[in-house]
Batch of 3 targets.
Target 1
Amino acid sequence: MQVEGDVYSFGGKIVKEEGANIGSRYTTDDRPGMMDSSNRGRGSFFYTISLGPIFRIGNAILAAILGLIILHTNPQFLPSLATKLRQHPSLAVLWGMGAIVGIIFVIVFLAITLIGIPLIPLLSLTVIITSLVGSLAVALFVGQSLASNRNWSLQQQFLVGLTILTVLTLIPFFGSLIIFLVNMFGLGVILLWKLGREKPQIAPE
């Protein structure tokens, strides 16, 4: 058997049978090719798992800074949301679930109309900010639930609650559920506070 010209192999090797002649040169590249995509997929999965806690801790630090700023500039805002969540937890869940379903329908509608596609990033950003602020109230609510018999300041209650939620989000697989629930409660309590008719009675510190 005679092969004219050069022969190259990527992701494998060249087997030269007896009696076969290669007219020029042959080169073998043993680097992983397309057939090794499954190995790369497993590697990227574990890489993501290892970086997940880092991102979540970083987000918690940013949330702590933002929450402390809000408590300093507007001391009644987050306590008002936490009180609303304490008084009407079921309504907060309904508002949160309804908002999530509504947001999905709105995004699909905007995508179908094509003209509304540029509005999708703006809507997504609004939802993210709203959920973030609401999640700060959820953290304060958790801290207040633990500090019922302790003389803790609002800042201490908030930081304790945020720490507990952050630790829970670091649990593999279960942490994703915690993130979803916190964001759902946060989004729901913001809407309940903004659109609800009854004003919450803020308990004294």
Target 2
Amino acid sequence: MSKFKQIYQSALDNADWQLTENIHLNQPQLQSWLQENGSLSRRFARYCHQFSVLLLAQEPIKASSLQPDEQAMLGPVDCLERIVLLHGDGVPWVFGRTLIPVPTMTGEEQDIARLGESPLGYRVFTDQSARRDALQLARLTVNDDVLWARRSRLWVKEKPMLVAELFLAPAPVYQDNSAIQRHITGVIGQRESRPLRTKVGE
């Protein structure tokens, strides 16, 4: 078992999930990330040169193995469990676990089971029907780091999946606006300074 999966999965399993209205955040930047309604992957990609996904595990899970609160959000259905690490420039930023009910992976959504190391958010939010609800937050202590996690239900064509995301210490979620702006400026400047590559004859 991956050390990331062992440590971070345990943290998510023991999370005390709270509705967003029951948690008062005094940090607008952090709140903006935790309550992001669109694709988190696309937002992260703006803060690095290379955004990537590492697939740690993907396997079927029986309905009887779901937690009661997971069954309450998805129903008593067999699922595909997808566990990933999201990286920015090779640095782990987010540990993610998604439960995808078998009935969700039908019709045009059959490809979700074959995403591999492609971001789930890229796939889901290309569909105009995509939406997010049932957002919950949790504050966790992992290896002496105080971290935030969120859990929400994604819908595509009215078919649900449950996504839990643990924001790791190096993630831009915890940086202040000025630090993030300096990083974005640096990334844009380096991209603009790269020489253009053209084919012979162009």
Target 3
Amino acid sequence: MTLSNIDAFDELTGQIFARLYENFPKPIYLDARRFVEGGDTACFNADSFTGAELTPPAEAFINTATWLVQEGYISVRPNSKSATGFSDAVLSEKGLIALKAVPDSLVSRATLGERLVQSVKAGTTEVLKGVANEVLSVLVKSVSLP
């Protein structure tokens, strides 16, 4: 089954935030080959004219990561974007605050960041997308508050 753009965005956002949260404050290389199932061979279209065009899943990763950087949830080294990712990526203050949030409805009191990491490790895609949506909601609310 093919993921919709929003489903792919939610899943990739969750995976990216989980990886950054797990490594915080250490900057990491956000590379599509580590997020797209199949690595190198799944990121580049060998049948394309040059063989260097990104596949749709790799493009979805780059577009998601780019949006997160542009919106200020992730900090990267200036001019660090490559064909498959970003160098020296780290959660921004805004991203870290959202991931450290604990929704009032949770009994376990695990932060959203901890829940993202647990979801990625457990391979629970639907939970990952749900938690990613909660993170984005926290981010939107923090931006819209006076």
